[in-house]
Amino acid sequence: MICFLQSLFLGGLLYVLVSLHIPDIRNVANYQPSQATVLYDRYGRVVDRMFVENRTVIPLSAMSPHLPKAFVAAEDGRFFEHPGLDVVSVFRAAVNNFRKGGRGQGGSTITQQVAKSLLLSPEKTYVRKFKEAVLAWRIDRLLSKEEILYIYLNQIYLGEGAFGVEAAARTYFDKPASRLTLGECALLAGLPQAPSRYSLFNHLPRAVKRQKYVLNRMAADGYVSAGAAKNAYLAPVHLRKRQHVISSADNYYLQVVKKRARAVLGMPLQQAGAHIYSNLDSRMQVKAVGALRKGVRRSLERQKKSGRKGAIQPQGALVAIETASGRVRAVVGGIDFVKSPFDRATQARRPAGSTFKPFVYATALQKGWAPDSVIDDSPVSIRGEMENCGSRATIPENIMAGLT
Fold first, then answer.
1. The domain spanning residue 150 has which CATH number?
2. pLDDT tens digit string along 137-156?
3. In the annotation, is 89 catalytic?
4. Active-site residue (options: 75, 132, 160, 184)
5. Number of domains in the chain
6. Would you give the DSSP letter of residue 175?
């Protein structure tokens, strides 16, 4: 009896001391994590993502109904019953660890994982573990189970740089979390224990074995029937190609968009969590890059054929504008963004020269001018003197002569 009272006293004293040095759990209630900023082209396709952590926060209603159940079955079967701490699981883990002579199992509940992720350092000490338990108990009293699960599913790391189930669904399956199948939900739910060990890209057979465990747990807990679990396990796994690499063809265009977006948002895009829709036509952009490189290559070949020594690598720029709407569909600021990110299309202060003539003369013809209409070619001064190429004489001439 005396030993019991001493243990109770020491436990209470430890609780008081630890409580004086633990974070404010209101930070959990005001959950606002760093989210990725996503850039889209005119077709709604993702062309770039910028982030500190690759995360897109979504509500439970935007997830497949199987997804929360799969994670609960895999990580914390008594989640909806315990008060943030699962004494049964902790005792079971302690017994298993004692038998194995180590600390293989932690027995952490989903609520404890939320506390550890948002409020505590990753150090592995018994004091931190006790703080984690205190915080989990308090969080369970502050938030509903659904709110805790919402935070957990958006916060957890699932490998390949993906934080939260939405980023993971798009990383592994190229679809939103709302469209995941039962089998895909079970695959994701198998990752938290060891994202690298159960990597869907590197160790798929091992991940599928873990998937089977999750599906069996879901069936045992009554979330799905045994038949549905079996069918999900037998269904083929369709993964996307590993980590989408942003097309280098889009870099010049995106550089302009990012600069303007930063000015509008007033903060780094990696922390904004914004969705930015551009007028970029990715298909046209690829063709524009190809056309510019082809033209520059031919220019260099002409230089070499002319016998000029020390031929200089020519550069070029291109802007494609949809005349009906004025929307910019493609921007190419040079032949190689990696070697030279300087954008000659928007940053170079060079005259457009005769490349602008077709627009001017086409407008004149639309306004009723004829090819033989005479125009005044006398000198003009607009912030500096202007003269014809080669100091050609300035005399009145017709439109046809001026265009050629």
1. 1.10.3810.10
2. 999 999 999 999 999 999 99
3. no
4. 75
5. 2
6. S
